[in-house]
Specification:
The structure is a homodimer. The first copy, chain A, is an alpha+beta fold. Chain A contains 8 helices and 8 strands, in the order αααββαααββαβββαβ. In chain A, helix 1 crosses helix 2 and helix 4 packs across helix 5.
Chain lengths: 218, 218
DNA sequence: TCTAATTTTTAGTTTTGTCTAAAAAAATAT
DNA sequence: ATATTTTTTTAGACAAAACTAAAAATTAGA
């Protein structure tokens, strides 16, 4: 059984490995707001546990075991975020901190039941894919609305980082995650999109379209 | 912000104070599976924090502050248990261990939203009352079915300790928490109860009636 | 290439919450 | 009422996970 702290390190390692590929001691420290010396200690421990490939002074990478363990934590995090938004009506921007705690709850059965309760969602409220039980993570066919052409369709999966206020706006317009969107017309003059959602025509500014994530089928 | 460990001690203190009234260092140690010396350490800390009235060698009692803090943890525990049973369809006997973890999640807003999501339940799946936000705990008007006379009514709130299998049986009979029960007839010969639940007549053996908890209105 | 700057690791300290063993206080029994 | 037993507290140790400061390795600059 891994400690909360270990789980946080594993997640950090996973995310850093995705975004950049050099995972240095100091980058981990920065990500987790800790001192590099603390990171070194944990890396040694992780090498023992075979979570990482580690050579002194040479940086790290997750082993298969490490990656799978990280994915199971990310799965929990994203399922809980989905729960908080879909069932408890939290705002999409409020759920991260709470999910950081919930992700550490230990119970396989709990997470499977939660998954079912939520109808086995594929994406969390931020549009990030939810890894499945075996660690498979569906590669996203995710696009911004602004990338779609007239008559193309997609399903709303989230919004881009740092655009929390957009969520409130969408809420007010009764637009929800999972809603289907079809592009009716794009105004050349200012890039405004006219789309159809739930049989209603809506108008989105270019700025909105640059921040709205959709799952498409190409 | 109190640590997980502190919260466990507070809960233990509260429960011990309810059941017995002499709360000795060793009884706490036994309850928490720890050594008395560890308990003494925590008691000193709690005295500092004004959670308890503590005099060396003289045992302890919770202060108002301690009691309120304990109740807020118990509130969380019981709301989560209710969630697990009602929404995730866990068995009534499986939820305690998971709720022991969930009760430590820190978020006022989360617990208020969970409470609403569950329709502000008054009792948890074991029939224990859920303290409300301000720490008020509704004194139970709880009775065993066997205590009711013909034509009396009650609402099912749970089953007695150690009768997990009864829950499965009730589940199979489509009897749920919150269902209304009316006693139609009591057979003198063997104490069998004939009751009405959801407009259906059901027959319960005396043994069942000795283990089924109801909220009544006397 | 060889020195200077940066990064990483090591060594030693701190805090929290546990433990064991010993000392002190209280309770019990004769 | 005092000696024995039990309970509680004290004192000191340990593990986990963080820290600081110093040493070692690597990288970069001239």
């Amino acid at each position: 059984m891994n400690s909360q702290s270990e789980e946080d390190y594993l997640k950090a390692l996973y995310h850093l490995e995705m975004d950049f590929d050099a995972v240095s001691t100091s980058s981990i420290a920065e990500y987790l707001n800790m001192k590099p010396s603390s990171v070194t200690d944990m890396l040694k421990k992780f090498a023992e546990k075979k979570f990482i490939n580690y050579q002194k002074y040479k940086g790290t990478s997750l082993t298969k075991k490490g990656k799978l363990t990280a994915l199971s934590i990310i799965r929990k995090h994203r399922l809980w975020e989905t729960f908080l938004v879909e069932k408890l009506s939290f705002g999409w921007d409020q759920v991260h901190i709470i999910a950081e705690q919930l992700e550490h709850i230990k119970s396989e059965e709990l997470i499977e039941k939660l998954d079912n309760f939520l109808d086995n969602p594929k994406y969390d409220p931020h549009g990030d894919p939810i890894p499945c039980k075996d660690g498979n993570i569906e590669e996203m066919n995710q696009k911004l609305l602004v990338e779609l052409k007239t008559s193309q369709k997609g399903i709303i999966t989230g919004v881009k980082k740092g655009t929390a206020s957009l969520l409130n706006y969408l809420d007010k317009e009764k637009v929800k995650l999972g809603d289907s969107v079809k592009v009716i017309e794009i105004l050349e003059f200012d890039g405004t999109y006219i789309v159809e959602i739930n049989k209603r025509k809506l108008t989105f500014s270019e700025k909105i379209c640059q921040n709205l994530l959709l799952e498409t089928n190409d």
